[in-house]
Amino acid sequence: MPALGAYWHGDIFFILQEEADMSLHDYLSKGQGVIYKSSDLWRQVQGLAEGINILHNLYQGTKIAYHQDLKPANILIVRGIMKIADFGLLEFKPVLLDETGSTGVVSSHNTGYYAPPRQGQYTRKDDIWSLACIISELATADIQGRDEIPKYREARTADGQHGRDTPAFFLGTHVKNQVLDRHRQLQRMIQTQEPTGQDDTTSVFQRKFYTAAFFALLNSMFRHGDSSGSLLAVPGQALIPDAGRVAEALEALRKEAMPAPSLNVQGETTGSSSQRDVGNTEGLVISMDNILSKFQSSLSRKEEERFGQVNLANMKQFLINLQAKQRSERRQQGLKRLSPFLEAFEQFGELLGKFCVPDTFMAFIWVGI
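Structure (tokenized):
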């Protein structure tokens, strides 16, 4: 989640961020939001792993960073994009001489059911454990539906020493049997699906994505003792993959599961790039429709005619004039940040141009100052 600004109000310091539509917790537990298509869901999870990998490698060699509070409630969904949030427990600590992955800080934070087993110092691998918990629930929701999540959590509570426990994913220092059983159950469900010849794209994608390699990756993300002879160890693979390896594996699985390119009526090849563009725009169109309707209702007839004629060239010229004015008044602070906006806006126009005439959409974005 980017920081858009900051300010003091009295003796309280505020950081202004984007307004999210919901959290991943709301999506999973409360059934909020439109259900992700499988291919779109795992593209977002790949992005989460990439974000964690960037975090873990911010200060290679001298300091290490870790989130320490990864859970669905701290993953926010902004117009369909999942973003890691709530870095209140994030710390940068010097690397120990004998352990480049350890913070030297005892992992004493209680971050809920997605926290890793307590094993001395907190490491990057503990973030991987939390990510594995999230992936396990997302796979369950994707294959069996979001209604299955409460049942999955209830099953984990029954996996305690005395028959009852919390919905945590570990018992002692090991992953719970109910978690591994769930993964085997999901794999069997996918493997036993019979092709009908009329499968929708989701069923086809899931059969190709949820392979033995996916579940081997997921199981390897759970700490199961420190022994390389663990039941969760994968031959030829590190016991616990780092976030970069997770992201790469998810990307490879997703690309392998995407539909093959086909020919259109003109004999031209249409591949996954076009399909990805369609997926990107689905949520965008819904959001744009809502914003456009709300904006138009606030316009007078004269304003509506004026805004209806605004295009990208008008906006560029206005910004050029604005920068010239600011420069002459020596008040040009922050205007350097407009250049990335213009570049992104051009890309946005190109995306729209693939599916519709973009001119009619320009006006609602430029709302005046």
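DSSP finds 13 helices and 13 strands in the chain. Residues 102-110, 226-238, 271-276 have pLDDT under 50 and may be disordered.
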